[in-house]
Specification:
Helix content: 25-40%
Bound molecules: coenzyme A
Shape: globular
CATH architecture of the largest domain: 3-Layer(aba) Sandwich
CATH topology of the largest domain: Aminopeptidase
Radius of gyration: 23 Å
């Protein structure tokens, strides 16, 4: 049996659509493909052929992800699929390895993905490296803690107002880890619409303007009507961003005034103050959710591209990485924090700290402390102070959280 892995040719995208649509149980027809054209235009397609026939595939978006507010190029892996009769033969594993080389050549030192199968990707060096809480509440049972009047007002906006929303998002993301630098295309096809919705339906977006007219927050949400007789709806709050107290309180009240809603749910940050902003936090259901998986595709450029944590000490440690899927990362690295930058170069000799590439992915963005990796047996320390130094160098300012599903 001969296998081949390569970029898909334009005349193969129909077949690739079939493989993806079958695997994700979406519309396999030409119309279904039409609704996904934007994805074909945004992400590079790779296919695996067995005896000349495409049986597995994936796509790679060209993104930049913020790490403590600094953009680092990232290959966003998506549409990973293999037809059922070809599964468990290692084909997707082969594709993922191939894609690591492609991303490295394309200058993408990081890779991210979203999946319900973390065990699969961890084998190839990705690791859950961000989290969410799924907040849900019945708006009738929740009252804001503060009854102080808020200055400003919420108004629904259209796609034309994208610059306004973008400006708020940029300020919100300034020091965060996980958000993408959103292109115009992304705003159009993945914010105002859901990226994998082939009907291309618009979400509702409302912007908060302060008394002086300045935009300081927004909500983006979708409403699903329920069954008769009352058709009480569920609202998926896709984004809730507020830069000021007035915007936070005002947008919260705006959402709570959706009276025919029995549930509002939001995949929001763990450290969001929502539970304190309401009168009775027991009325908020909160469920822990894994969020994005991250992979360090290229040690040297990934470490160099991110800043050390604010206030991190100067110093160096040697880190031993084992990485079967990306052998160029394998070995000992001297990681140095100096003059407000980070450096990584291959080194000789024994390492202070040893871990798998997947473990390092979660350490890299500050999702897991190196000392916790040691404490749980996921890393081995030859020198106790090295893990503590790594904790301080890689600390995030906010808990890592991907804001852009793909
Ligand atoms: C998930 C899917 C892509 C796996 O494809 P595949 O070709 O069967 O995967 P491989 O054979 O290359 O498996 C590689 C390794 O991952 C493991 N693996 C495969 N699917 C897995 C899963 N769902 N969960 C955990 N591990 C999995 C395999 O056992 C294998 O491990 P091993 O080498 O130690 O034996 C395929 O089942 C599929 O298309 N599913 C439907 C769509 C989907 O879920 N896509 C992924 C969304 S992120």
């Amino acid at each position: 049996m001969a296998t081949e892995i390569r970029a898909a040719r334009p005349d193969e995208l129909d077949r690739m659509h079939f493989v993806v649509a079958y695997s994700f149980t979406t519309d396999r027809t030409a119309e279904g493909r039409e609704g996904m054209r934007h994805i074909e235009e945004m992400a590079a397609p790779f296919v695996l052929l067995e005896d000349g026939e495409i049986v597995a595939c994936l796509r790679v978006f060209d993104f930049r992800m913020l790490v403590n507010g600094v953009p680092v190029p990232m290959g966003g892996v998506s549409s990973v699929a293999c037809l059922p009769e070809y599964r468990r033969k290692g084909y997707v594993g082969m594709l993922l390895r191939h894609t690591l080389e492609e991303m490295r050549e394309a200058g993408q030192p990081l890779s991210g993905l979203y999946t319900p199968h973390p065990a699969l990707y961890r084998k190839y060096g990705w690791m859950v490296a961000a989290s969410n809480l799924r907040y849900s509440f019945n708006p009738k049972q929740v009252t804001p803690y503060s009854s102080a009047p808020v200055r400003g007002r919420a108004a629904r906006v259209t796609e034309e107002d994208q610059p306004l929303v973008e400006q708020v998002f940029r300020r919100y993301s300034e020091r965060r880890t996980g958000p993408l630098v959103r292109s115009e295309r992304w705003w159009k096809d993945a914010f105002f619409r859901r990226i994998y919705d082939d009907k291309r339906g618009l979400s509702d977006v409302a912007v908060w303007r302060e008394g002086d007219g300045e935009a300081t927050g927004y909500v983006c949400y979708e409403t699903d009507r329920g069954p008769p007789p009352f058709r009480l709806s569920k609202v998926w709050l896709r984004e809730f961003v507020a830069l000021t107290g007035d915007a936070y309180q005002g947008l919260l009240r705006y959402m709570l005034s959706h009276d025919l809603t029995e549930e509002i749910f939001w995949f929001g940050p763990h450290d969001d103050p929502l539970a304190y902003a309401v009168d009775d936090s027991y009325q908020l259901k909160r469920e822990y959710m894994d969020n994005m998986m991250l992979r360090v595709v290229d040690m040297e450029s990934a470490v160099t591209a991110r800043p050390p944590a604010l206030g991190a000490p100067e110093g160096a440690l040697s880190l031993g990485i084992s990485d079967a899927a990306a052998p160029w990362n394998q070995g000992t690295w001297r990681i140095e924090s100096s003059g407000g930058t980070l450096g990584a170069r291959k080194a000789d000799g024994a390492a202070d700290l040893l871990m798998e590439a997947a473990t390092f992915a979660a350490v890299y963005d500050g999702f897991m402390k190196a000392s916790d990796a040691v404490r749980s047996g996921l890393a081995e320390a030859q020198n106790g102070s090295a893990a503590l130094l790594a904790d301080r160098i890689f600390a995030p300012e906010y808990l890592p959280r991907g804001t852009d599903f793909f």
